[in-house]
Specification:
single chain; alpha+beta; 6-stranded antiparallel sheet; 5-stranded antiparallel sheet; 14 strands; globular
Length: about 475
């Protein structure tokens, strides 16, 4: 196996000819990164596995760099960046500080909303966002988020008063009620907050078993996917690229299962694609209605045809012209209409990276499920309950490591198999950096259950609302 050295520390700070300022870390994220808006004209990329460690940020030419300084808690940084901008184009090394804790929690909330594969309680996710915005002092953003989530806050608050939720969830809901009251949500919230303050916390004895069972369902096996059978010359199955799809729209079982079914109708000279929607997804929601289907050349990755998908009988379906091609010469996929065609990864290396991303998203979901399982414990658990929760958490981390190992193996195959001209046609250094990131992530998994600031969010501790549509 080829050895791959660690990347240099820090990153590169670039001031372009138009006055735009950007910074790029020397490392990559093991799980696909998530975009976070820091302020007007300022965006960042964050690592879901280390949400306080920035991967990149960019300040538009007309924007001030203040949001970057605020996010990392360095008030002098804004003036320094502005002075660099005044000096003109530049490239220099810079070791960017980490995000402040409130920003890191907002980053984690954003990552959970993007990469959680199971169905979630949408109201709880909105409350996590609202609490994070409130902690940052973003009054307008917090007010809007609390207004959208008021229904969930009142419903969860009543459940806490009734003693049907755990002490950890009750504490999170109490915090949300206090923040919402400060954001001006009104009398119902104030009254509920006082009632909850007078409530005796419920015992958590049954919660560990409940969340352990829920963690088993982290792959969301609610919709059968038929891509596990053998294919015929006229039928094949394919993996979907999670990075070009809205989260939780299409059914997901595991990184290995192939969600997309393709039938070659040779008489009609068309490829017929179908992929089941996730359970309880509204077929008329915007995300389901703006799915597109494509086929591309297997060797070059060049798109050959794109068409709008339709929703029929619980699946996204589409017909693409075959134009004499066979299932052996083209590959297929679905993507969101907001995605640029250039983001599709259809060549051999791109398809391999799709598999890597699927396995790493799966690993991270099991990692987060392990944390939630441990969070199910009451404040002072008995020895048996604590031991069982730790065993279940360790099991989930082993599954996470197995998925990450699969991703690592795919990357290693790419690196060891590239040579000559092929090595010049794709980003070998990027693949190597991703492999290093995954190795680093795997090295941290054995200690993932130790107490850290990366505690589960409210949305990770609550079952989805059965009455809440997608």
């Amino acid at each position: 196996m080829t050895a791959h050295p660690e990347p240099p520390a820090g990153g590169l700070l670039i001031v372009d000819e138009f006055g735009g300022i950007s910074w790029w870390s020397s490392r990559l994220a093991p799980v696909p990164s998530v975009r976070l808006t820091l302020g007007p004209g300022v965006v960042a990329e964050i690592d879901p596995t280390e949400p306080d460690d920035l991967l990149a940020w960019a300040v538009q030419p007309a924007a001030r760099p203040d949001p970057v300084a605020d996010a990392v808690g360095d008030p002098m940084l804004s003036d320094w960046l502005a002075s660099l901008r005044d000096l003109g184009e530049a490239v220099r090394t810079f070791d960017c500080p980490r995000l402040r804790a409130p920003w890191a929690r907002l980053a984690l909330t954003t990552a959970i909303g993007r990469w959680t594969t199971r169905r979630i309680h949408k109201g709880a996710l909105l409350l996590d966002e609202a609490v994070a915005e409130h902690a940052l002092g973003h009054r307008t953003e917090a007010e809007h988020a609390f207004a959208y989530a008021e229904y969930a806050l009142l419903e969860l608050g009543e459940r806490c008063v009734d003693g049907t939720l755990t002490s950890r969830v009750t504490a999170a809901v109490a915090q949300a009620l206090a923040d919402a009251e400060q954001s001006g949500l009104g009398r119902p919230v104030t009254a509920l907050r006082h009632r909850l303050a007078e409530t005796t916390p419920v015992e958590d004895d049954d919660l560990a078993a409940m969340l352990a069972g829920w963690a088993d369902a982290v792959a969301v096996r609610e919709v059968p996917i038929s891509g596990t059978g053998s294919a015929s010359p006229e039928i094949t199955y394919g993996h979907l690229d999670l990075t070009v799809l809205a989260p939780r729209i299409l059914a997901w079982q595991s990184a290995r299962d192939r969600e997309l079914r393709i039938v070659h109708d040779q008489d009609a000279d068309v490829f017929r694609l179908s992929a089941p929607l996730a359970a309880d997804v509204d077929p008329y929601c915007r995300e389901a209605q703006q799915l597109l289907a494509y086929c591309a050349d297997n060797r070059t990755g060049a798109p050959l045809a794109v068409t709008a998908a339709q929703v029929a009988t619980g699946s996204a379906v589409a017909d693409l012209p075959a134009r004499g091609n066979s299932l052996r010469t083209v590959n297929f996929g679905l993507f969101d209409a907001d995605t640029e065609l250039s983001a599709l990864r259809c060549d051999p290396v791109g398809r391999a990276l799709v598999e890597v991303d699927r396995n790493m998203v799966e690993a991270w979901n099991h990692h987060r499920a392990a944390l939630a399982t441990l969070a199910a414990l009451p404040d002072n658990p008995d020895a048996t309950a604590a031991a069982l929760a730790h065993i279940r958490g360790e099991e989930l981390l082993l599954v996470a490591d197995a998925s990450a190992s699969t991703a690592r193996g795919r990357l290693a195959d790419l690196l060891d198999g590239s040579s000559g001209e092929e090595a010049e046609t794709w980003p070998r250094n990027t693949v190597a950096a991703r492999l290093i990131a995954i190795d680093r992530y795997r090295s941290r998994l054995p200690t993932a259950l130790e107490p850290t600031g990366d505690a589960p969010m409210l949305v990770e501790l609550i079952l989805p609302d059965p009455d809440e549509g997608w």
